[in-house]
Amino acid sequence: xxxxxxxxxxxxxxxxxxxxxxxxxxxxxxxxxxxxxxxxxxxxxxxxxxxxxxxxxxxxxxxxxxxxxxxxxxxxxxxxxxxxxxxxxxxxxxxxxxxxxxxxxxxxxxxxxxxxxxxxxxxxxxxxxxxxxxxxxxxxxxxxxxxxxxxxxxxxxxxxxxxxxxxxxxxxxxxxxxxxxxxxxxxxxxxxxxxxxxxxxxxxxxxxxxxxxxxxxxxxxxxxxxxxxxxxxxxxxxxxxxxxxxxxxxxxxxxxxxxxxxxxxxxxxxxxxxxxxxxxxxxxxxxxxxxxxxxxxxxxxxxxxxxxxxxxxxxxxxxxxxxxxxxxxxxxxxxxxxxxxxxxxxxxxxxxxxxxxxxxxxxxxxxxxxxxxxxxxxxxxxxxxxxxxxxxxxxxxxxxxxxxxxxxxxxxxxxxxxxxxxxxxxxxxxxxxxxxxxxxxxxxxxxxxxxxxxxxxxxxxxxxxxxxxxxxxxxxxxxxxxxxxxxxxxxxxxxxxxxxxxxxxxxxxxxxxxxxxxxxx
Length: 521
Known about the structure:
Strand content: under 5%
Order of helices and strands: HHHHHHHHHHHHHHHHHHHHHH
Number of helices: 22
Low-confidence stretches: none
Radius of gyration: 28 Å
Distance between the termini: 39 Å
Helix content: over 70%
Shape: globular
Number of strands: 0
Largest sheet: none
């Protein structure tokens, strides 16, 4: 039975590559990128052999990061292959003493697991000059990989119920997104403190060596430096941690195989929500529905999260360089980002788009309602981003220009997005999916469509940008007022034009749009 489950896992892995050419190409590119990183790590370990005094600490930290990555990313953020979740085997009646070892072994039949083993074994070459330590280092690297997979499997079982809860998925997505956005400043801060960071390596590695993260990885360093007491203690701890994790995985597997998969409860609502505050017209109904999605659908969170993150990033960049010029472009950037967000509105609707089709909502009402909802949520952040930098800097002459360019950016973006979303759809994460999930085989089309949409917005903003730049260089409030006037006229005109043209295309292509969103393409 164990061999049968492993064979099924291999078949599922192979069939996953055959699902689509785009997915296969993506896996190949991602695999080549990961292999490139592994080759770099292996070469670094090869050339650092005997050349650094912190070889033991490096081994511990690299191994600990590998285990920590497996403990956080798959169980909590991206999810793992569903064949690793014992709850999927509830109905098969497989004995736990068979299912447990099979699931543990199947955890290594995946591209990330194989790459992790290769990478850790490659990193063990830092001990290549010591023939007695090198075999121990290779075994320790494999043990660290096993530890990583076991931790991932155990936390995956525990996180299955949590991932069924929408709030948990939204929270983990928000944390991951903020970490990715702030990765640049974090790396910059670490690099600037590199001298003092070296003083932290030793104490951090000393602590990690006695934890499940780095116990196995600490073995070659302890042996190479003649610290046989630490070697014995870490060897015992690594064996205890591995045995304990295997026991926990088996126990969790046994419990999961007699427990039905968690079911999501339907949310309870009272009142009419936003429908209470919008007019009783088709446009008002679409506006209320769109506002509800903006506040409750995590797929819209990227645009919303960028509002507080951009000022922090620009302020951090300015504090490093002493030039805060980018702060004056916050308004236009936020306007474009938030306005661009509705370019995927119809794609995000998925099957809910049938509400618009079956009720006969006109194209103009659909376009106007979605644009109005986005405008209602965007106008305050855009106004604040346009006014506050100039006011704080005591440069009141620039406020009219910043305001004109920012409002024009928002209105033009809404107009262009109203046309683009009625003409072009593409695959997006389905409702309830991880918002950062990328549907396979769709990357090139999405990139081209989004680049064309943003490029169109930039071209249409040129008549506003010219007087804005002239006013900026001349520090002229009069040119700023001219920018404000041109921006309002151009923005309002293009918004209404986009709603009209997008509504026309919407009505002409309603059947095609319905088919596209149902198939998520």
